[in-house]
Specification:
By secondary structure, the protein is an alpha/beta fold. The chain has a single domain, classed as 4-Layer Sandwich (Purple Acid Phosphatase, chain A, domain 2). It has seven helices and ten strands. The strands form two sheets. It has a five-stranded mixed β-sheet. A five-stranded mixed β-sheet has the order 4-5-6-8-7, with no helix packed on it. Helix 1 links the parallel strand 1 and strand 2. The longest helix is centred in the middle third of the chain and has 18 residues. The chain is globular, with a radius of gyration of 17 Å. The model has no long low-confidence stretch (mean pLDDT 96).
Length: 235
């Protein structure tokens, strides 16, 4: 089986389509955050629905849109997230879209190739909001403190790709497909095949996304910040 591992698309349909068109795969594993920041949350949601992901968990931005709560993201991007949620996501997502986002699980546990896999947006201890830039064994408990039995963790949320082994756990974060923040503006994603994970990057038409953002008529302050993140891969 060859699985395409994607997270944090954030309304960037241009990057999402580029990844899907570039790869051959048997399954899609999506780790959350299809909404906010980017210009096309509705289009991205439709694209992913058509792919029928084998795994699809909710991200903190998806949960915020679905239930009308704060996304509790990092301080540097919180104001931007609130603005884009109110002025892009909430304007473009219909009732059916929000109902679908409400239906998404916070975690998925599954046996694959004889191993236990734990899929979550952030981390097991805090599925929506916990930032784990580097592996932290203290995060490998559920909300009531039980140690996670699965030995492979697949997660997103940070927008920084990671692939490693620590403390008896294998962990993989594909980075952000739609808004990388690790200094590399190329779309980031992963492949799982023959029992191994691989990180991949791909160039896409950033300026097409910039054009779409400019067509939204956003406040110049927020428009400029969005464009800068896309072009530089940094917040």
């Amino acid at each position: 089986m060859r699985a395409l591992v994607i997270s944090d698309v954030h309304g960037n349909s241009v990057a999402l389509r580029k990844i899907l068109d570039a790869e051959k795969y048997d399954a899609v594993w999506f780790l959350g955050d299809v909404t906010d920041y980017g210009p096309d949350p509705d289009e991205c949601l439709d694209i992913l629905k058509d792919e029928k992901p084998e795994v699809w968990v909710s991200g903190n931005h998806d949960y915020a849109n679905a239930f009308g709560v704060d996304c509790r993201c990092g301080e540097k991007t919180h104001e931007l997230s609130v603005y884009t949620r109110e002025n892009i996501s909430q304007r473009k997502l219909g009732r059916e879209d929000l109902d679908f986002l409400r239906s998404l699980p916070l975690r998925v546990e599954r046996e694959i190739d004889g191993e236990g896999f734990y899929f979550v947006h952030a981390c097991p201890r805090d599925p929506l909001y916990g930032y784990m830039f580097d592996f932290d064994p203290s995060c490998m408990t559920n909300e009531i403190g039980r140690r996670v039995d699965s030995n492979t963790l697949v997660y997103g949320h940070t927008h920084f790709p990671r692939n490693g082994v620590s403390g008896g756990y294998r962990y993989f974060n594909p980075g952000s497909a739609g808004q990388p923040r690790d200094g590399d503006a190329r779309a980031s994603y992963g492949i799982y095949e023959d029992g191994e994970f691989r990180l991949k990057r791909i160039e896409y038409d950033v300026e097409e996304v910039v054009r779409r953002i400019k067509n939204l008529g956003l406040d110049a302050k927020y428009e400029g910040t969005l464009i800068s993140i896309l072009r530089t891969g940094r917040v």
